[in-house]
Structures are given as structure tokens and as C-alpha cells.
Amino acid sequence: MLRLLAYLTTPVYLVAFGLCLLVFHPVQVIAWNVFGYQAHQRSIIWLNWCLDRIIYLNFTRLDFRWNGLKPPKNRKIIVVANHQSMNDIPALIWRFSPWKLIFIAKRELSKGIPSISYNFTRGGAVGINRKDGAEAIQLIREMGERAQREGRSVCIFPEGTRSRTGELKKFSEGGFRALCESLPNALIVPVAIHNSWKLARFSFWPVPVGVHVRWDVLPAIESTNRNPSELLLEVENAIRQHLDSIPK
Length: 248
Description:
Elements: H1 2-35, H2 37-53, E1 61-65, E2 77-81, H3 88-95, E3 101-106, H4 116-122, E4 126-128, H5 133-150, E5 153-156, H6 174-182, E6 187-194, E7 212-217, E8 221-222, H7 228-245
Parallel strand pairs: 1-7, 2-5, 2-6, 3-4, 3-5
Antiparallel strand pairs: 6-7, 6-8
Helix pairs in contact: 1-2, 1-4, 2-3, 5-6
């Protein structure tokens, strides 16, 4: 019964998703070219608010938990999260909008996708070739240096790619180390994402109904005078332990 319902609601969700991208593309263009950078950033925030909300069309329950742990708005932060599906990102952009997050993403997103590709080139995201680790780390380092100059913060998914089963993959150190070195004294904010992989388990056809997706912001960690390797291991363990504590 739920599978049948999913086939009925999925087209509605996908059409709504596509319309959001199509509508906000000219909005972004106008905002950037007429009103400037700040207006463009506001348009991105509202785009991601819409993308975050339309998943309710599939009777999905979204649960973003700060647990009373919002970081100070005057601090640069490095958000470190596990990655399970494309649905992870709109919630992070919307909820962390005061910190002006820059994302690290695969280079393929920089071309041909309404709204997303335009924001990719205008909003400061870094597109990396996952097959060229040395180039990726250098680009991440340059992004961190730009974030430091511009007063922005960064989000990184150190698994390197999304988990298709929800199982947490080993975190890769290179990009995280580059960010720690280029954003000294940033506050490290771990985020544990649970169950968003289920939305993509059938490659979005259908999108299952009734999934409970959670984002849990865990206690922030000071990075000052910390070894990046030890710090990343602490973050990975914190996320892993939290995910293990959530009932399956």
C-alpha cells in the first residue's frame, strides 16, 4: 500500500522540485545582476527553504534538532556532516543561513542544472574532481582562504560521496585538514544526518513515503591548537555514536 502511494506522490514531488529550480533560476539572475550579491544570497536561502519543504508532499517527516547548541553567529564555523542524499543540503543551507555556508561539491553540478549551477558559480561553491585528490585539496584550501577573507563559513562531507545504505563511511582527512589550516580557530560543528538515504534508495522512483529524516547538530568543538587528524576522528566518532544511538 505504501509503495503504491509512493508512486502516486512521487510525480507531484518531482514536478514541484523541478518547478522550484525553474522559478528560482531567473530570480537568482535578476537578484545578482540588478540588486547584487546580498540579494542573490537571500534568493538562495528561500530556494532552499522551498526545496526543504516540498518533500512534505511525500509525507516525509523532517526533524532538524539544534539540541540547544546553536553556535555563536559571530564565529566562523566548519560544518562536518555525513552525507546520504541530495536532500541533506537544502536543510543545511536554510538552517545555517546566518553563517553563510560555502559547500564543496562534485564538479558535475556546475553545468546544466537550473538554479543549482547558477548558484554554484555565483555563490562560491567549489567543484572538485573526486578522481584528482591533489587538485581537490588545493581547491578546498583556496576556498577556506576565501571564506576567511569574506567572513563566511564552510560545510564539508568528509565521506567523499553519499552513503547509499546509511552506513557511515570512513572520513577522509585531506580536505578537512586543508580547511583547518586555512580557517584557523573556526568552530567545528558536527551534524549527524539520519535516514535521508531512504529517500533516494530507489533512485527517486519512487520516493518512499513516511520517512523520518533527522539532522542532529552535535556539540561544537574548538579547533584552536588541535591536531586535524585527532579532531576529525573525534568528529567522526561523535557522528557514528549518535547515529548508532538512533533506533533503526
